Amino acid sequence: MKKNKDSKKNEFEGNWVALITPFKDGKVDEKSFKKLIDFVIEKGCDGIVPCGTTGEAATLDYDEHIRVIELALEFADRRVKVMAGTGSNSTKEAIELTKEAEKRGADAVLLIAPYYNRPTQKGLYEHFKKIAEECQIPQFLYNIPTRTAVNIEAETTLKLAHECKNIKGIKEASGNIKQISEIIKGAPDGFCVLSGDDIMTLPIMAIGGKGVISSTANIVPKEMTELVKNCLEGNFQKAREIHLYLLELFNNLFIETNPIPVKTALYLMGIIESPELRLPLSPLSEKNLPILKDTLRKYKLIPE
To answer: Is 57 within a domain?
Structure first.
């Protein structure tokens, strides 16, 4: 069985769960959050990522943001690694959040490209470089141009990867295989490319990616871990079977803006107490709810 080009294990490889943040009556539902974290860890995930896109970080206030990171660390209890989302469109705030995560013992942080500001590539470089200089914790860039309106180009990523030793990888959700290939080809040893799009996990890992930060893994952590594990072991026939098996789930968990469907699914599965979202996100539409329920039944995630 052939292994990926770089067979040496990377400390950040694997299936990372992009955790939702459960809410109840307008507040973070700590009880449901613990139940979710226990569920994904018991099913074999490699790490958890609180306060990312799926975690509705954009609508957490500063104190809530820190509290959710604290809870993730407390509930994980060192069973898996914790990569805390600490990015912002303000470099100053990103540094403050990153320092707080570092102080509390997070294993790494995830730094989204600044949104709304639309910085140039030079601005992106200076933003991430400044955070890397101010904070020693391992850092992952997060490229998702559909959300941020700016793409972190391969040249910028590679410059940061070679110059900043604590920038350890990137969550790539651009969907641009050419760009991702250039990053994997040009990156220094140990730089870890993780898929930021569940449906792209297999193709990205086929060219040398090391895993995924997955929304779908909130629902099927075991299957996502198996997909990643088989890719890392070079067993792409089995990985392809799992990918195709999960295809309908990948599609229908994004039938509306993430995390609306995945949060609704976790509620229907009884893992969280409420499907509550924060405005401007709104509940899953009546049109799409039956589609999601049918999909969950097909995967035996809720009763017939």
So the answer is: yes
Number of domains in the chain: 1
Given 3-state DSSP classes, what are the helix, strand and coil percentages for the chain, each rounded to the nearest 5?
45, 15, 40
Active-site annotation holds for 299: no
| Per annotation, catalytic residue among 81, 125, 168, 171 | 171
In a domain, 27, yes or no: yes
| pTM above threshold 0.85 | yes
Residue 269 lies in a domain: no
Residue 3 pLDDT class (50, 70, 90 cuts): very low
Show the beta-strand stretches assigned E in 42-149: 47-49, 81-85, 108-112, 139-143
Catalytic residue among 81, 142, 210, 263: 142
Range of the structural domain that residue 78 is part of? 14-233
Catalytic residue list contains 171: yes
Residue-wise pLDDT for 133-168, tens only, equals 999 999 999 999 999 999 999 999 999 999 999 999
